[in-house]
Amino acid sequence: MNEEHTLPVVEEQVTIRKHKRVTETLQAHTVTHEHEQPVEAELSVQTIQIERVPCDRFVDHLIPDRQEGDTTIISVVEEVATLNLRLKLVEEVRITRHTETRRIEDAVKVRRQDIIVERVHPPPDTEV
To answer: What does the pLDDT read at residue 71?
Structure first.
């Protein structure tokens, strides 16, 4: 009994196909909110005071401008005809700076943005 039998061999093959399909989409937009926020700040204000000080005396040479603390002193001279030419200090101009700091309070509008994201489901079987 030497019979040959042929057995069929079955082979399966798989073919994969891909389709793009939209399952959902997103929509995003921003919303701006305004609210008032109090603020504080220190402001410096500088004022100038001018004082004229009569001197009315003779000097031997020009006096350079000078600084004494917050005060700048500028000497004003004139030439006076005498037997000899001499400088006469007529006046000094004193310029003094005063600084004042004040605290202010005010309210300013500030904005903040939020983003809102919504999911939108497309109709079934929508392909891209």
So the answer is: 93
DSSP β-bridge partners for residue 27: 118
Q: Is the pLDDT of residue 84 over 80?
A: no
Which of 29, 40, 26, 12 minimizes the C-alpha distance to 113? Answer: 29
Alpha-carbon distance 43 to 115, whole Å? Answer: 37
Domain count, the chain: 1
Q: Rounded to an integer, what distance in angstroms lies between the CA atom of residue 54 and that of residue 101?
A: 33
Place of tokens 């030419």: 85
Alpha carbon distance 5, 20 (integer Å): 48
- Edge-to-edge, what's the strand order for the sheet holding 66-68? 25-59, 86-120, 71-80, 66-68
Within-domain flag for 67? yes
The residue segments making up the domain with residue 66 are 38-110
Token pair 């200090």 is found at 89
| Residue pair 46/98 in contact by the 8 Å Cβ criterion | yes
